[in-house]
Specification:
2 domains; 3-stranded mixed beta sheet; alpha+beta; 6 strands; 5 helices; Arc Repressor Mutant, subunit A; 149 residues; 16% strand
Length: 149
């Protein structure tokens, strides 16, 4: 595991599966390898990446179930996009997400100082009747210029 990012390499990933009582299957390994390559992805994207490789047979439904299971175990994070797709994030360290509302992609904003300032400010506040479980920051944005093709 990369200590700065908390992203599980393949060997640490195998150990994490075993620790959670899950079999290390070719499908689970293929999903994780695709997620390491993609970073943020929906089940369709991960399935496409796996099928492009051609070594493992999967369906979108099985990939979605695997991604959801990994999210529930804390191996990945998940978030719903404005186009109603569940996106999964291989990076579980504290960071800010910027969501491109036109192209429906997530970009990690790695600014530890900014995150710490926001976290410090929010954790010092009291929200009557609530305790903060965590902080998940998402910035909505769109490209300032049209992309060249």
């Amino acid at each position: 595991m990369d200590k700065n990012t908390q992203t599980l390499g393949v060997e640490d990933f195998r150990a994490r599966l075993r620790k959670n009582g899950l079999k290390v299957t070719p499908q689970r390994i293929a999903v994780h390898k695709a997620m390491l390559k993609l970073g943020h992805a929906c089940a369709d994207d991960v399935t496409g990446e796996i099928l492009k490789d051609g070594n493992t047979k999967v369906t979108v439904a099985s990939v979605y179930n695997i991604l959801t299971q990994f999210s529930l175990l804390g191996i990945y994070q998940h978030r719903m996009s404005s186009n109603n797709k569940m996106y999964f994030d291989v990076n579980t360290f504290k960071h800010i997400h910027m969501y491109d509302t036109e192209n429906h992609v997530y970009i990690d904003v790695k600014d530890e100082d900014l995150y710490k300032e926001i976290e410090k400010k929010l954790l010092s506040k009291r929200f009557r009747g609530y305790r903060i479980d965590g902080i998940d920051i998402q910035i909505l944005a769109h490209p300032s210029r049209k992309r060249r093709k």
